[in-house]
Amino acid sequence: MSHDHDHDHAGHDHDGVHSHAPDVSASNEKVVLVGFLLTFGFMFAELIGGLLSGSLALIADAGHMFTDAAALALSWAGFRFGRRKRDDKRTFGYMRFEILAGFINAISLILLVLWIAYEAVQRLLEPAPVLAGPMMVIAVLGLVVNCGVFWMLSKGDTAHVNIRGAMVHVMGDLLGSVAAIVAAIAIYFTGWTPIDPILSVLLSAIVLRSAWALLKASLNVLMEGTPGNVVVSDLKETLVARVPGLIHVDHVHVWSITSGQPVATMDVQLAEGTDPAIALSEVKSLLAQEYGISHSTIEVDFGQSDAVCALDPDVEGAGDHDHDHDHHAHAHHHSPKPA
């Protein structure tokens, strides 16, 4: 049985196919870079203001701004590297760098939240004086800057894990500015300084929730987990039910290279007399339309081999088992980019 590496895209129905891929564009890159410059610049003003006024909320907000700046810098680097062409050593290019940036962003946020919680407890045990006037001025200016950066990021591709991660950082910083304003007002009129660390802790709890979600999303991609819109058992049933001549789907692996870039591999068995080229074209089209999978590798199994999946942990010795290509026709089709 010969190897069939048919790259002909004829017969694909592109109607209704839409792309789930994020736009790693120069526009996104510029938005993130401007946001970084604004955030990094104002961070120093907020840090100095926090130290002079004695406000933990401002210092915490300055810490948020520092991680914001780091997050935006990583996001910018992610877009910069992500647009590089693939080469012989990195056949998927540098797209995974963006996921690494998102993972680091989440870790940095979680560490910051722990630090703020520790500092807040120390402040509650040993209250320190806070100058409400300078605190208010810096907090209001910080709110303006954060709103501007958040607005710019919202004009980018908000479905992208890196843009979303940067927005989580900036949103946390924006809430920090609001908390600092509320604390400054309360301290000015009542003199009750514990509100400063209390609001810092409440803010940290909100940020922690978003950071945890971002951590799980980025870690799922790094661990090559199945994308959220794909249930493998449902995918197999859908293909068998809707592709004429397809009788069985096995050894299915679906993962993401980066945010919005899912890929898949699988084995399929066809009924006798079914044209493999037509069947594979239908499978490819369905994967693109229903699951956003525009890159898949499909091996046609004609039932003449007992080959097992080398990645199946339940099969003893599977890792040492090579597919017998004398009994398989390997069809590797690249689905065209959705229109």
Describe this structure in words.
Helices cover 57% and strands 9% of the residues. The chain is of the alpha+beta class. A 4-stranded mixed sheet has the order 1-2-3-4, covered by helices on one side. Helix 1 runs antiparallel to helix 4, helix 3 (96-125) packs parallel to helix 5 and helix 4 runs antiparallel to helix 5 (161-190). The model is unreliable at 1-24 and 318-339 (pLDDT under 50). Keywords: Ion transport, Membrane, Transmembrane, Transmembrane helix, Transport, Zinc, Zinc transport. Belongs to the cation diffusion facilitator (CDF) transporter (TC 2.A.4) family. SLC30A subfamily. It comes from Pseudosulfitobacter pseudonitzschiae. It is a multi-pass membrane protein.
Count of distinct structural domains: 2
Give me the Rg, rounded: 26 Å
Q: Taking strands numbered 1, 2, ... along the chain, how are they ordered across the largest sheet?
A: 1-2-3-4
Identify the CATH homologous superfamily of the largest domain: Cation efflux protein transmembrane domain
Kindly, what is the distance between the CA atoms of the first and last residues, rounded to a whole number of angstroms?
Answer: 35 Å
Which stretches are low in confidence, meaning pLDDT under 50 for 5 or more residues running? 1-24, 318-339
CATH architecture of the largest domain: Up-down Bundle
Secondary-structure content class: alpha+beta
By CATH, the topology of the largest domain is: Alpha-lytic protease prodomain-like
SS element count, helices: 8
Subcellular location: Membrane
GO molecular function, one term: zinc ion transmembrane transporter activity
Biased composition (Basic and acidic residues): 1-21, 318-327
Domain Cation efflux protein cytoplasmic: 238-301
